[in-house]
Amino acid sequence: MEDKTSFDEIEKFKMFSSLGETDDRQVLASYLTEIARGHQPDIRNSEFSDMALGYKFIIDDILETPGLKDSIHRHASLRDHVVKELITHIENIAETTSEPPQIDRQRKRLSLPFGMRSGNANGDKGRSTKGMMSKLIESVRKMLGGKTQQKQDDLKKKLSDNATKFDKSQHLISQLMDHLGLGFEKAKGKWQSTGFDVLTRYERLLEDEEMLKELVELLGRYASAELEEEKEQLEEISIQPFRRTFTHGKESLIGVHESDDLSQILPTEAALLGNEDTELIFYKKFVEHKLQTFELKAEERPPVKEEGKKSQKVSTKEDVAGPVILCIDTSASMLGKPEQIAKTLCFAIMKMALENKRECILFSFGATEDEIEKIDLSNLREGLEPLIHFLSMSFSAGTNAGPALHAAIDQMQQPNYKMADLILITDGKIPELSTDILHKLRKAQSKDSRFYAVTFGAENAPELKPFDLVWKYRASKKESLAEFARKIKKLKRKK
């Protein structure tokens, strides 16, 4: 079921709320609609009843919370969230307060949200914004008082904190999008469609700013290692200049012959043009291709390759980019540094998959089938939710790779996941695989699927022997990321 937008909530408030009279709800709904659109509301205080104006001042007080108004100007999604909270808040006040908040007529000369005054016709001119806000806060406190005022303060703090977290999350996730090659502009557009509600469903992401920062830092180091690895590859390829033959090339003089090549005529032939009596002779010889001209020959030298150096291979075989299935261990033993490394390596594989337009799906595993999560990372091209879901994954389950491998191998039976590469990322502390799993694994291998494992443990787990290749990642070694970058390139296969 889709979340309702703030506009849906405003319409519901206008039609069905028990707050005030119909006219009161109408003017408040119009006011909230302009805020939801990101506009400066152009509604005078005189258009509100005393009671409706009281609720307007409550709304204004919240929107003037430091750090909130700038954020909701920038982010439509956050603005949508704030307007929903405002509707809930004023309806709660209406239901729990015996007397509705009201504003005296002389107080109708206070400000609109975002620092815009609304009572121009009532003599506001010349008052400072700071003074107006002091009067606004004073009026709201007099209206509310007690527990209701505490709820007002709590909501202001909550919305301010959410705005701060949202800004930081957007900045850090935009950096991660850049690492995936999706770019800031695409990330910016996706934020509008992903929404604050998605982030609140994955609260850990809003709360764990340090985790995101560490991941961005690790990915930056991976990107540097990747560039270094590419540089080393280029240095291993020796390219020696060579001469190429062109039909118009002229390098060595070998004699004189007859032609119509004016660029190579002998001076004696050119002299014919200097005399009217011989000019016609020149034209006749030119037409007949009998001008005396220098004969030149171009030199040709074939490419020379140095012995003992790598040379690039050109294959006539068609590239086949199979889908990628990631299985990531989310057991409690992966908490901390292993979690950051696991997510970094996953990012590197996701980037490769996106660049090569390969399907990519992730299975996280714990101790039981109920702890398996499936995330289709191919959908990152359409929205940010899979990425946010992935970043918010909790590493606190048990350890049993069996159910996840069962699910992953079953995925390989789907038509669009044939010849898939499965990559298991774990600290190596996994129980022995069942006979049924091993049978399914070998059957998939016989159909050209390949199985890889990346481990962080001191020793390779014997349970991983059936895999085609096991890569050991050692965080203590600087070259580990560069080595992983080289391994990633081997995932590209040929027919």
Automatic annotation (TrEMBL):
<feature type="domain" description="VWFA">
    <location>
        <begin position="321"/>
        <end position="489"/>
    </location>
</feature>
<protein>
    <submittedName>
        <fullName>VWA domain-containing protein</fullName>
    </submittedName>
</protein>
<dbReference type="Pfam" id="PF13519">
    <property type="entry name" value="VWA_2"/>
</dbReference>
<dbReference type="GO" id="GO:0005829">
    <property type="term" value="C:cytosol"/>
</dbReference>
<dbReference type="InterPro" id="IPR036465">
    <property type="entry name" value="vWFA_dom_sf"/>
</dbReference>
<dbReference type="InterPro" id="IPR002035">
    <property type="entry name" value="VWF_A"/>
</dbReference>
